Model the fold of this input.
Amino acid sequence: MSSRAESGSDRFKRILLGLSDVRLRVDWLDAQVQSEPTDMFAPLLDVIVGESEVSQPKAREALLTIALWVAGTAREADLDRLRHAALEQRLLSLQRVIRRVPTPSQAPQPSEERIPDYGAGRELSLGERRNLARRADRHGFDALLRDPHPMVVRELLTNPKTTEDDVVRIAAHRPARQSSIEAIARTRWLTRPRVRMSVLLNPGSPPGIAVPLVGLCTRSELLELARGSDVHTIVRITAGELAERRPPLEWEKDLAGVDSLPTLQ
Done:
C-alpha cells in the first residue's frame, strides 16, 4: 500500500466521519463518486475496504457508509464504472462489496398476496392503508406489517412509532418481498445489525442489497452466513472469504476453523 494511497484514505475517512449524520455521509460519498476520476477513486475505496476487512475501526465505520450507498443509493452506471476499474486494477476488496450478481433468467414469480384484514368489515383502499401507516399511534400495526404493497411499507418505515422489531419482521418475511427489502435499504434501518442480519439470512433478499452488507458483519456472523444452508450462494461465498481475512476476537478463537467455507470459482 503506497503512502499516497494511505494519505488519501486517511483524508477520506476524516472528512466522511466528520459528518454527524449517516444520510449526509451517504450523500457526500455519492457526490465524490460523481466528481472524482473512477480510476483514482476505486483504489482509494479498495484501501478503505481492505482496512475494514482486518478490523481497522475507522475503516469499518467508513465501510458502513460505503455499504449503505451500494445497497440503497448507487446508480447502476456508477457501480459499473467502479466494477470495471476494480477488475482492471485487481482491487479484490472493493470487488467483494460491489460484485455483480447475475439475475436468474426466469426468476420465480411469487403468488399475489392478499390484502390483510384490517378489521373494517371491508378491504381498505391503498390510500386508507397508507394513511394508517402514517398515523402517530400503533393502531393496525399487525396488519400493516403483513401488507404487501411497497407504498404502505415505505410509509411504515418512516413512522416514528415503528420499532426495530417491526423492521426485522418485514425483512425476515418469507417468501421475501423484494420491494420491501429495497425500501428498507433506502432508510437508516440498515444501520441496525439485527435488521442487516435479517436481510442477509433471508434467501430471497436481492443480492445487490445483501452482498454489500456482508462486510459489516462480525466474524461470528460471517461464519453463521458462510455455513447457512439456505443463505443465498453469493452471500455464503463472500462471507466465507471475509471470515478467512477477519482476525478472530478472543472469545471467538475456540470456534471451528473455516477450512470448509465456500470459495468463489
Summary: Residues 201 and 231 are 6 Å apart (CA to CA). The chain is about 60% helix and 0% strand. The longest helix spans residues 38-53. Residues 113-190 form one domain.
